[in-house]
Each structure stands twice: as C-alpha cells, then as structure tokens.
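Table S4 entry, Cytochrome b.
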Amino acid sequence: MRLLKKPVFNELNHAIIDYPTPSNITYFWNFGVLAGLCLVIQLITGILLAMHYTPHVDLAFLSVEHIMRDVNYGWLLRYVHANGASMFFIVVYIHIFRGLYYGSYNRPRRAIWNIGVIILLLMMATAFMGYVLPWGQMSFWGATVITNLFSAIPVVGEQIVYWLWGGFSVDNATLNRFFSLHYLMPFTIAGCAGLHLIVLHLSGSNNPLGVWSSRDRVPFTPYFYVKDLYGVIIFGIFFSFFVYFSPNMLGHPDNYIEANPLVTPAHIVPEWYFLPFYAILRSIPDKLGGVVAMVLAIFVLSIFSFIAGNEIRSSQFRPIYRKLFWLLLVDSIILGWIGGKTPEYPYIQIGQLATVYYFAYFLVFIPLLSKFESAIYKRHASTYIQQYK
C-alpha cells in the first residue's frame, strides 16, 4: 500500500484506473487501445524476426525462407508481423475516420490530432521500408519507383535519391539502410504514441455528443477496461483469421519471387494501405505535382484541424457535415480501388475526380460549412441568452 502512494504509482493509477472517462463513449473508442496493441505486437515480432534476418541482397530472400521453413514457429512470427502491419493500418484508419466523424480534430484536442498525423507519417515510412526487406520482386521494384519520386524535387532531388540508395541504384547499401531504419522507427512511433496518450489525458477524451462535462464521467477501470477487453477479443479473432487461414490475402504474389533487376513486373503496386495515396500521385499528370499532391494528402489532415474549427463538434448535430463525411469515406475507398488498377482510361479520370473531392472536402467544403454553422450557432446562442436574462 505504501508503494501506491508514491508519485509514479499515483500517476499510473490516475491514467489507467481512476482516469475519468465520459460515460457515453462507444466501442469506436476501442481503436486507440487496439492501435497500441498492434504496435506492441509489431515490436515483439519484429525483434524476434531480426534475430534470423540477414540484410544482404544475396541472402535476404533466403533468410526469409529460412525463417518460414527452419525456425521454430518462424512461419507464425512472419505471418503475424506481415499481417500485423495491415491490421495496424486498418485500426488507425478507422481511428482517424472516427475522429473526423465526431470532431476530435477541434479544440481542445488539436494537439492530440496533430501528433496522430505525425504517427501516421512514421507508420507509412516504417511500413514502406519493411516491405523492401523480404527482397522479392515487388519489394525491389516498389523501392525503385517510390525512391525515384524524390528526383522530382528541383535541384537537390537527384542527390537525395542517391543518398537514399547509398549508391546509384537500389542495392545492398539501400537494403542495409532500410533495415536499420525499419528497426529504429517503431520505437520512435512508441514515443509519439506515449506523448499522444499524455496529451489526451491532459485534455480529456471526446465523446459521441462532442460536449464536455465534468459530472457525467466514470472511472476507466472497471467500466471501460471491460469494454476494451471485449474489443481486443473480437480483434484477436479477426486477426487470427488472416494469420491462420488466409495469410497472403493482403500481400502480393510477386513478392514470393526473388528480386531481379532485369525483370520488371507487369504492374507495380504498393501495399493496399498506400493505394489511395498512390492513386492521388498518379492522378496528377506532372511528376512533381503528383508527389506534392501525395504528400499534401497526408498533411491536409493537419492543416484541416486549424481551418475547420467549430463549436459544434459531433456530426450528430451537423446533418450536412454527416453527408459530406460519408461521401469522403466512399471517395477514399474509390481511391484505394483506383490505386490498384492500371493507369489507363477510365481509371485515371475516376481517380482525378476522387482526388478533387478529397482535397475539396478538407480545404473547401468543411471550412466553409464550419463558418456557416458557427454563425448560426452564435446567432441562436445570443437569442437564447437574451430571452432568459
């Protein structure tokens, strides 16, 4: 009992057990915990896989086969790690769309939202470098295509590409650099996730109504601990289905062919969680413009939080916003579908239309709608105050 009175344990008790949580939050608030669980799974399996992996162009593909065939439960480690990346992105994408739907990007949670955008960027960089490590055909050619995008940067672009490669082509130096960074960056993500959680506890959790109340709150344990545990069990069943019954569904078959610089695959595509951004890249006819649009497609999430603030947070009280949100969700799915198609008619034209709506949603529609709704809110609020003075 004396230990529990120490400052460290007091903080842990406040953060895990007595943390005041809005009583009306739903199962959509489970995805923050699930994202943390995915990160822990990726860290543990990644460390164990690194014990058997060899970052050399002549041995990388064979070392992965060695893990699959010779290491005890190596197949399980590899499938959990590979599918765990997809599970991580599924959870984070749902987490982002939940935040958009319930206005979690608004004050006072703007800092939480922007730290989340940084985590998303780090996840994408980590996943891209991890995809190169098996050194299959799609790994090699995906690395070649994506790193070449930096050459679109004026003046210094070509030098940046050579620096990333460690030479004049994707080769052994590239693989070593990517392996080193892929091992390091998950710990950076863990640090950002810890900061994300600290800032969340300072400003408090959002809720479906988008209103703040110091009264209608209950301790996190046992009420929401049980709710999160239920979500973890359902997620574990979903995750296990892919690992045990369809481990290669979310991957590309060409990556089971060893990398060959002399044979180009018929259709080079990234992993599914990059496809919407890949579609945006290809929808712009100019190379530099496409790269800028692809990068802006991520940073617009941060810009959006500064220009679309609203006193009314939850979409439950914003019927026009709600319709635009569901159109954004459909639009994002269309972009993902287009990203996996060959760049030809009519896919390019569909991708361009979907790209226009994506940026218009964040930079035009919602900021203008927020100003319109805020003006109505203030007018009604002032009328209400005058009536009851």
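The chain has a mean pLDDT of 90.
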